[in-house]
Amino acid sequence: MSKIEILHLTTDSRIGGTEKNIIALVTHLDKDRYESKVVALMPGGELINKLRGYGIRAECLGMRNKFDLGAIFKLYRLIKNSKINILHTYLFHANILGRIVGRLVGVPVIISSIRVMERRRHHLWIDWLTNRMVDVETCVCEAVRKFTIEKGKIRADKLVTIPNAIDVQQYELNMDIEQKKMELGIELNYPILGVAGRLHKQKGHIYLLKAMLRIMREYPRAVLLVMGDGPLRTKLTIVCYKSLINNQLKFLGLRQDIKEIMALLDVFILPSLWEGMPNVLLEAMALGKPIVATRVGGAEELIEDGVSGALVPPADEEALAGAVIHILTRPDKGRGLGKVARKEAERRFPVEDMVGETEKLYGRLLR
């Protein structure tokens, strides 16, 4: 019996939450039944090499911008010359290009994924306009599914929720905490806070920087580690200098050692203004970290306020600061929140569940 050929098409080759879930999926799919290939539109990241290291076929089309016709023709030829049974796409540009090209070529099954509560109206409109080309769109959480029905005007029967997943065992680290702090230039007894994500308006960094002013009144030695890069880096750096908190912040940029850095944290903070199901929260949960997150998107499906973390309103620096101070003042409470969070990640979001639900969907659509 020949294997089912699946082409996983994603926009970016940089490794973020979406790409981590692609890696988890393609490395855990039944190898006797499925043959996966991953294609990224945009260059500049480690996704392709990482997948090849796992023995997964992968390539990047080198798309320079969304109007790069050369890359679009490459995608057309690639799909036309392949015997693809399923085209599974991720992120907006891959979703739209994939479904158009896939239907032109005649791919039997096309699945798109919706990973965020999209704020741009033209994205919602284009998704609605081309939705007839898709068999199913998967949503990473119930919040995203409900948003897509209400704001995106997509029929409920075209949407399936398959949550993100995490392999908790990969977050059992054996590392020298003191050595890592020295490497980052942090004194051993300083409280360490952290945020990870693209430096973009969506992630709400500006409210966290404002919250740091209050946090530092209570904990003047507190250090905030900012992991990630993006268009707001210069603006955020200027805000730090103007607020005189620059000595307590470290902009670490893009890192390959995110897990190890997050393992140092006394509190992990996610101040987003809108979200899908933030993968970085699952990582913090797997590491057993006390979490303060805004009550947006799938964060409410991951964290139970006061039980596995703290949830605060978005764009509210006072609430953000208060929740962080509350945890720093009660370290035993913080450790308890982290332990519950880790157990919840292991119990509710194992990779096997995500893969099993995806394989069921593949089977149903192929039938």
Could you characterize what this model shows?
Helices cover 43% and strands 17% of the residues. Helix 3 packs across helix 4 (92-105), helix 4 (92-105) runs parallel beside helix 5 (121-130) and helix 8 crosses helix 13 (317-329). It starts with a strand and ends with a helix. The strands form 2 sheets. The protein has a 7-stranded parallel sheet with strand order 3-2-1-4-5-6-7, with helices on both faces. A 6-stranded parallel sheet has the order 10-9-8-11-12-13, sandwiched between helices. It has 367 residues and is α/β, with parallel strands linked by helices. It has 2 domains: 4-165 and 350-366, Glycogen Phosphorylase B (Rossmann fold), CATH 3.40.50; 168-348, Rossmann fold (3-Layer(aba) Sandwich). It is globular. The longest helix is centred in the last third of the chain and has 18 residues, at 331-348. The protein has 15 helices and 13 strands. The chain has helices spanning 17-28, 47-53, 69-80, 92-105, 121-130, 142-150, 177-183, 205-218, 233-242, 258-262, 279-286, 299-302, 317-329, 331-348, 351-366; strands at residues 4-10, 34-40, 57-60, 86-90, 109-114, 136-139, 159-161, 192-196, 223-227, 249-253, 267-270, 291-294, 310-312.
